[in-house]
Amino acid sequence: GLHEIEEAHTLTFFSESGDTGTGKKEKEKKNRKGKDKENGSVSSNETPPPPPPEEITPPQVVEEEDDDDWGEDTTEEAQRRRMDEISDHAKNLTLSEDLERTVEERVNILFDFVKKKKEEGVIDSSDKDIVAEAERLDVKAMGPLVLTEVLFDEKIREQIRKYRRHFLRFCHNNKKAQRYLLHGFECVVAMHQSQLISKIPHILKEMYDADLLEEEVILGWAEKASKKYVSKELGKEIRVKAEPFIKWLKEAEEESSGNEEEDEDENIEVRHIPSNLSTEPCVLQS
């Protein structure tokens, strides 16, 4: 199960306005049929070949009649080759079975995968493996939601920098993934309200500076609170606390577009947040 937060918010996953990428793919089911025995069968007087070792036999194996020809070669190399064939077949079965699961089940499979990488101490170098698993499960857009759950806590600002590469693999040029990152961000705030509620503008700035969020996505998120992942009341409060950053973002965007023809040197400071916002916790009236 996912990390516990208020009313287990992250255990329920919602699709983003009908976008593709989270629905099930229709997969053609292929029945493997046994081949007819050619040139007769093995004599009853012959000793059948030894079965593969039980400890590496997958849950679903090919029926015996599929593999009568395996008995012709009992060398160690042949047995190893047969085990590889069984392993490949098991992987294909697992892939097909996983894609038939619900979106929520597939997201939880990804969660367990990421959590295991963290527990094994290899999470820092597992960014490629994680995105590959998300793609295998056809839930890539939801990857940031899982990553925030496993990797972020009250130290989110430094963790954004530490795991930037992991999030970029999902969020680069993917607005849907960026929206799920914002959903995950809200869930982290819900878990650590006392430490993070006043730091919301700074956290958003960290994600923006790390190129994890685009202006359009942030401004769209700020317009309306959702109760999908946190309570509507908390969602509204988060957006109120985010107002200094949202205001700066709008002004910077307008100033940047208005000065497009000016010298580059004159625009150096356009994208920088005001110093009082970037260095001091922001306390706003709710």
What features would you highlight for this structure?
disordered C terminus; 286 residues; Serine Threonine Protein Phosphatase 5, Tetratricopeptide repeat; 13 helices; elongated; 0% strand; mainly alpha; 51% helix
What's the SSE pattern? HHHHHHHHHHHHH
Q: What share of the residues lie within helices? A: 40-55%
CATH class of the domain at 6-15 and 98-257 and 272-279: Mainly Alpha
What share of residues are in beta strands?
under 5%
Verbal overview:
- Residues 62-76, 252-267 have a biased composition (Acidic residues).
- The protein has 286 residues and is mostly helical.
- 51% of the residues lie in helices and 0% in strands.
- The chain is built from 13 helices and no strands.
- Helix 2 (103-119) runs parallel beside helix 4 (143-151), helix 3 (127-136) packs parallel to helix 6 and helix 9 (200-209) packs parallel to helix 12 (243-258).
- The longest helix is centred in the N-terminal third of the chain and has 24 residues, at 76-99.
Task: Furnish the topology, listing elements before pairings.
Elements (H helix, E strand, L loop, with lengths): L75 H24 L3 H17 L7 H10 L6 H9 L4 H7 L1 H8 L3 H17 L1 H4 L3 H10 L5 H9 L8 H10 L1 H16 L16 H5 L7
In short:
Helices cover 51% and strands 0% of the residues. Mean pLDDT is 76; it is low at 1-11, 17-40, 57-64 and 265-286. The protein has a domain at 6-15 and 98-257 and 272-279: Alpha Horseshoe (Serine Threonine Protein Phosphatase 5, Tetratricopeptide repeat).
